Amino acid sequence: MSAWNAMTYEGKDTILRVVREQAEGMFAMAEAPGAWEAPTACTEWQVRDIIGHIVDTTEGYFKAFETARAGGTADAHGLPVMHELAGDGGRAFRDHSQAEMMSRVRNDLDKMMGILEPLTEEEWGGLMVPHSYMGPVPAFVYAGGQLMDYGVHSWDIREGIGRAHALSADAADLLVPFMFIIWQSTIRASADLSPFTIGVTVTGRNAGSYRVSISDQGLAYEPGKVSDLPAVLEFDAGGLVLTAFGRINGGNALGDQALAERFLNLFYRI
User: What is the pTM (predicted TM-score) of this model?
Assistant: First the structure.
């Protein structure tokens, strides 16, 4: 198995290393002079709100693992309300100082790594931990969640600065397998789910081709050839991640353009 597929135990050390790297890069940006109240790509969030969001989210992860270890369960809000609840959670810390929040987010990162690093191979894929929006998920999803927060929101901070920039290839490559889960979880309630299948191809360390099928059961995907399909979306890793998160309209459409656009418009943005 690939050390770049964090859905497998072989990828554990790689994703935790990259989480640390992305976090340190974000902390440096958030601590820069004048950065604390600067705008970001998340139009309602300043840099301080991204730090607040990560504190709020990570400290929720602590409770989730405590619940899982105790054999308990928790209700899930569902992803449609995440934008509102996460926004409120991030802005809730605006009366705290920059120094206080930066110390807190660093401590939270250390504590989260202290939870994830000791996980055994069985626990990485087999310990089911209640996620506040998605319900019970394998423990490795929380490593993916940390990388999404530190990797994608670092992109958001750089976007707010207004300079040309790019998503880290290491972060993007590791997030590729998680993007299909994001798509599965963000289909609009009003979406037309008349059945069809398209192809998605991705470059990078998790390069491959996927057959993605839509039906009244939602979205299903599997690796496979795509040459026989009416439409294929081609992405580099960063383009897939930023498109799935709704930051950009990326990718190239081969074949039936209308079908490709129908697929891309099935999802709400997070």
Answer: 0.93
